[in-house]
Each structure stands twice: as structure tokens, then as C-alpha cells.
Amino acid sequence: MSAIRYELDSDQILTLTIDMPGQSANTLNAAFREGLSETAVKVKSDLDNIRGVIIASAKKTFFAGGDLKELHKVTREDAKTFEDTVNGLKADMRFLETSGKPVVAAINGTALGGGLEIALACHHRVAIDDDSIQLGLPEVTLGLLPGGGGTQRLPRMIGLEAAFPFLMEGKKVNPKAALKAGIVDELANSADDMIAKARAFIDANPKCQQPWDQKGFKFPGGAPHHPAMAQKLAIAPAMLKQKTKGCYPAPERILCAAVEGAQVDFDNGSLIETRYFAELVTGQVAKNMTGALWFQLNAIKAGGSRPDGVGKETFRKVGVLGAGMMGAGIAYSTATRGIDVVLKDVSLENAEKGKSYSEKLLARKVSRGRMTEEQKAKILGRIKATESADDLEGCDLVIEAVFEDSELKARVTREAEPKLVANGIFASNTSTIPITQLAGASRKPENFIGLHFFSPVDRMQLVEIIVGEQTANETLARAFDYVQQIGKIPVVVNDSRGFFTSRVFGTFVNEGIGMLGEGIHPSSIENAALLAGMPVGPLAISDEVSMTLIQHIRNQSKKDTEAAGGTWNAHPAEAVIDTMIYEHGRKGKAAGAGFYDYPANGKKHLWPELEALFVDAQKARNIRLQELKDRILFIQAIETVRCLEEGVLRTVEDANIGSIFGIGYAPWTGGTLQFINQYGVRAFTERATELARAYGERFAPPRLLLERAESNSPLA
User: Fold this and answer.
1) What burial letters (b/e) apply to 277-299, b meaning 16+ CB within 10 Å?
2) What would the pLDDT profile of 97-146 be if each residue is shown by its tens digit?
3) Mean pLDDT across the chain, nearest whole number?
4) pLDDT of residue 563
5) Which of 40, 260, 472, 642 lies in the 20 to 30 Å Cα band around 715?
6) Which residues, other chains included, contact 707 with Cβ-Cβ below 8 Å and sequence gap of 6+?
């Protein structure tokens, strides 16, 4: 059965309906390529009897893009064969485009990547006017480029400058915005209206040729040699490098393909695109990113970590204890998904202040035209600010987000738990204190679980679900359902101090602060983190979290560790933090002074006194950038292996996705464990051993890593 249905009607209009057998969505794979090739042969033989062509879809979406399973398997040895395959596909698309007959894309649903590229190869595009439909070229977000002509057709349609956000940032838009941008030509109010408009275009345009195939074609906004465009393109690589820090080859290759392709005819531009596409597909960064951000992320979203045999739960009323930054963010994220929220604090004033956080976020959406006043009022109406525990009556779930203090958390647990519905869940948003320890205050420890959100909650996608020693599988399954109900990504870990993300995040922060204590210049530390692919430097993030909180968590952990009979091993960073707080009164951003200064009317900058206090001029001069980058990436990866070895982490998928979405571990690596795999397990272990000799036992490879290094087998 062909992937494309061929229907030539009595009006001599050919409808090509893409309907991939055995798939819920159309994808650009071997079956589609074969179907397109067969179709091109048929069209050639029927050309005299065809007035026009409509390309449609039998699926709910128009076309989902390239088959990433296929792309993920392509190796450097396959590059030439791969290029030939891509060029063959593009030749079939090009035949339809240059046949002289009008070709119309009838876009009934989302068209992303290769799907939009098929539509761009048509002479006219009609899309159903539905805001849920997305159009875009998101390949760059997986380390790839649009390889089906996207880097050539889109700039020729709307201009280089207008095309860059779609090509280099993966910008996606709804049909209205696509019409405004010039990506689609008409909107339809229904499927029938869409087909009617497609047929009307064919009737009105018996002969069709793309603008770029016509003599005298000029690029909208100017070709690369146009003085105004040449001036912009001269600084584009530097601006791009500032964003990518040299970690992501895809945006740079997209820029090259688009600009180089714009200086030759379309067909040669298409060959240039294919060459860059093959380079990215066979490169390691794309393998890392597609592996984690597509396959592993989708496995988690499909419920890979959710226990079987438990019916799916829908939550209706959730209590949040503590209306500070975290509690307010949890309340907002819950209410925007249609769930009633009780936001409780010690006073009504505090609770209302927490609710006002939601009001500000929603007001911003209204001002940008993304929400109506009525929708805003409806969401705010779902949040009840209160000081009374009685208002928690009937909650399916209560989440405490109070200060990181075991006794305080125990007190609010005992107060709120009786208000839950029968078999309701109680969750702690603690970032470090073991869930089993906190569950000691619960009358139903089997219904007690950790839900660790990340700040700011409205923007951070991850929730770390922590399973205590007595947490029931049913509780885990229901907590998983809640996280998905509010549109977040759930990763599941077992209990330990700091769990997974806080433990790994702590190593990043401590390593950076420890470097300062060794005499390395603070600018070098911050820049090394950014150039390694971290979103922010360790000193800046310490200020954001606040050094007093870091100190408090450390003191609580030390107290609990020693109370349990353990030994606390002090990290070199501890002395630096204590010096900053006790000797210089610098506690972090909220206090107005930390590693950075925060002038009222200026940009933050590193505190100048850090140099005199900590920097060793000779060491600062001699340290290699790669050494700093290695320490930042390696220490986090090593701690992740420890979490896997200790059974804190349940899966490699949770490790990689948790590290990227929870702590911002460089996405180009594919996550902490994939960083080790792509580096080579044996080579990584040897380098870690070198770092341990130079900087201490914290870099020593764990037993699991040493075992895998013997056979050089990946952590999977």
C-alpha cells in the first residue's frame, strides 16, 4: 500500500493524499520516499491530463517531519549514500514544483520540519485557521537543519532576515501568524473550505512557476551582496557565536547554507544544503540531542517511569502550603491547567501576595494578546488565598513549599494532612531533605511523596518525583499523573539527601566557588561555565539561590548526617561562602550583594574585591580554559554516576532529561550520562582519574564507571 493516494478527478485536478500506513502521523521515511518517487513517475505520464495538484493529508496533522529513527542511525561512513538519498527525495519534490502545473498544499493540521518543507515546495498554501495548528522548522532544536529545501525556499519567499528566526531558532507559529509572515497564502475556516480554496487557486492559475525560477528574481529584503544585507551578515557569525558559545554547530551551518545558497541558483543552493545537512546528521552533537531531547524525553512522557496497573487520576483541588516564590509558582502552574488551588500561608496578607504573582504573570499575557481579561479572571478565581487550614478540606493533593527546615515541614504536614480526601496525597517540595525522613511526620507515609519543582516554576518544565522508602506505587502513579496534568516533565528518583538534581547542582556550584578559593579569576570561572554550555555561571547562580540558603542547606545536611552517625566531608567551597557571609556581609542577589554587585540603575557585575580577596595572579594566568570546562562538566557527570550506582536514579533517561531540564546541564551533551558515553567511557574514566589526582577525591571514578571502562561499554 502506497504512502500517497493518487486521485485524478473529472476536473483534471490531482489530489495526492499522504497517508502513511500503520502510523498515526505522516513522517518522512523510506516508505514516503518510495511513495513520492512512484507518484512523480505517475504524474509525469499523466501530465497532459492534469490541470493542477493538491497535496493533502489523511491524518489529523498535515505532516510531522523527518523520521528521526532513520536519521539517528546514519553514520559518517553512510554520508555519501545519505546525501544521494536526500537529493533523490528533493529531486522528486522539485519535479512537481517545476512541472508548470499549479501545486497547492492543503494544510489541515500541524506541519513541522519536513512537513512544512513539502508545503514550501508548493506554489500556494492554504491552512485551516486553528490556533492549535503549528507551522515551523524546529530541526535546530535537535542539532539539525531543515534538509528538505527549507534553508533555500523560506529565505527566497520571505527574505533572509525574516527567515532566520524560523531557521536558526526553530520558531513555530499558528496559521494566522504564518499568514502574516508570508509562510502561508490563505486561511480556511474548515476542511471543505480549504479544498475549495485550493481548487479555486488552480482554476485561477493554469500555469505556475516559483518566483525564484523566474528570470530577474530578487530576494525579498536583499540578497547577501546587497549593501544593507551585507552589513548585517558581516556581524551575524559573531552574534551567533555569542549565543551558541561554539557548542552548537547547527545554527552556524544553517546560516552558511542559507547565505551561500542565496548566492547561487536554487538547485545548487539545494546541493549546498544537503552537504551541511549530512554533516550535522552524522555529527555527535545531533546524536546527543536527538537521543535525549526526542527519544528519551518521549519515553518519559509516554509514562516509562509510571508504575503499571494503576488507573489514571485527574486532580480537581490542590492545596499549596507556603506562598513564597515556589508556592506561588506551583499555584499558578496548577490553576492555569484548570485545577482549583488553595494557597495557604501564615497570614492572609502573605497568601494574597503569593496570589498576586499569578495576577502579574497573567496580566503580562493579556497585554501581549495571548489571553483575554475573562480568561485571566477565570484562572485567578481558581486560586483561594487563605491563612486557614480548614480551607484545605477536600484537597486531592497537598504540596508543602515552606522553608527548608525539617521541624517546620513536620508541623505543616501534621496540620494539613487530616484535611485531605480519603487516600489523598501529601507531597513535599523539599530540594534536599530525604522524603523518608519527612514522612516520619505523616500518618500515612505510603501516601507521602516528594515533588521537587524548579524556580521559576512557571518557566521550568521539570518536576523531580522522589519516592520514599514507604511510598506506595499507587501514590507514585498518581503524582506522575498530576505532574503531567499541569504540563510538566516528570522524572522519578529514589530517596537520598539531595536526591538527584540537587546533588548534581550542588557539585556544579561548589566546584565554581571552590575554583575561586583556589585563586582562579572569577571571570574565568563564569566564562568557562558558559563556554561549556551551562546557561549561567556558578557564582551568578549562587547569588540567585542566595549564599545564606546554600549555607543553611549545608548546615542542615551536616547536622542530619552526623546525627545518623556519618562523617561530614567539608568541600573547599564552604570556607569561601562563610568568608563572604560572615566577613563581608555578602549573602546574594536578594540581599543586594554577593559574588556580584547589583547597582540600582545598572547591569550586575562581579564584585571587584573578589580579585584582592581570592585571586592568585600566577595561577589565574596559567590555568587552561579546557581544564575549567572539564571540571564543570565532569564533576556533575561523576555525581550522576554515583546516583545511578546507589540506586537513587532508576533510569538513564531520567538522568539525562533531569540534568538538562532541571539544572541546565549543557543540552549539546545529551545529558550527564550521555556526556560520558559520547566522550567514551574509558577515556572519560582516565580523564576523571587525572582530575582526581589534581583536585581531590571528589573526581574519583565510582566503581560502576571503572567496571564499564574495562569493556568501554556505555551507560545505558
Assistant:
1) bbbbbbbbbbbbbbbbbbebbee
2) 999 999 999 999 999 999 999 999 999 999 999 999 999 999 999 999 99
3) 96
4) 86
5) 472
6) none
Helix (H, G, I), strand (E, B) or coil at 208: coil
3-state SS, residue 493: strand
Residue whose grid cell is 502545473: 101
**225 C-beta neighbours (distance < 10 Å), count:** 11
- Tell me the three cell numbers of residue 314: 485527574
What SS3 class is residue 454?
coil
- In this structure, how many other beta carbons lie within 10 angstroms of the beta carbon of residue 210? 19
Please compute Rg for the chain using Cα positions: 28
Cell numbers placing 356: 498576586
Assign 102 to helix, strand or coil.
coil
- Beta carbons of 462 and 454 less than 8 angstroms apart: yes
Q: How far apart are CA 479 and CA 488, in angstroms?
A: 12
Instruction: Reply yes or no on whether 139 is catalytic.
Output: yes
The 10 Å Cβ neighbour count of residue 45 is 8
Nearest residue to 262 (alpha-carbon basis) of 287, 236, 239: 236
**Length of the chain, in residues:** 716
- Residue 321 C-alpha cell reads as 502550603
d(CA 391, CA 389): 5
Q: Quote the CA–CA distance of 208 and 118 in Å, as a whole number.
A: 16
Is position 117 annotated as part of the catalytic site? Answer: yes
Q: Which residues contact 380 (CB under 8 A, 6 or more apart)?
A: 335, 355, 358, 359, 362
Residue 477 is classified by DSSP as H
Cell numbers that stand for 69 in this block: 529513527
Exposed, middle or buried by CB within 10 Å (0-12, 13-18, 19+), for 569? exposed
DSSP 68-100: HHHHHH--GGGHHHHHHHHHHHHHHHHHHHTSS
Give residue-wise pLDDT tens across range 494-511.
Answer: 999 889 999 999 999 999
Q: Are strands 596-597 and 605-606 parallel, antiparallel or unpaired?
A: antiparallel
Cα–Cα dist 82/73, whole Å: 11
Element of type H or E holding 225: none
3-state secondary structure of 499: coil
User: What does pTM read for this prediction?
Assistant: 0.93
Catalytic residue among 83, 97, 139, 639: 139
Q: How far apart are CA 180 and CA 162, in angstroms?
A: 11
Q: What is the pLDDT of residues 404-442, one digit of tens each?
A: 888 999 999 999 999 999 999 999 999 889 999 999 999
Ordered DSSP codes for 548-564: HHHHHHHHHHHHHHHHT
Identify whether the C-beta of residue 296 lies closer than 8 Å to the C-beta of residue 669: no
As a whole number of angstroms, the distance between CA 696 and CA 689 comes to: 10
Distance CA 688, CA 705 (A): 10
Predicted confidence at residue 404, as pLDDT, reads: 85
Distance CA 632, CA 536 (A): 12
Torsion sign (Cα): 537, 543, 546, 552: positive
| 580 pLDDT above the threshold of 90 | yes
Angle at 328 between CA 323 and CA 329, to 5 degrees: 150
Integer Cα distance of 625 and 525 in angstroms: 9
Burial 51-88 (b: 16+ CB within 10 A, else e): bbbbbbbebebbbbbbbbebbeebeeeeeeebbebbbe
Note the Cα 642 to chain centre separation in Å.
25
Catalytic residue among 97, 117, 186, 464: 117
Determine the Cα–Cα distance for residues 645 and 637; give it in Å rounded to an integer. Answer: 12
Spatial distance between the Cα atoms of 164 and 691, rounded to a whole number of angstroms: 41
Residue 273 parent element (H or E): helix 266-281
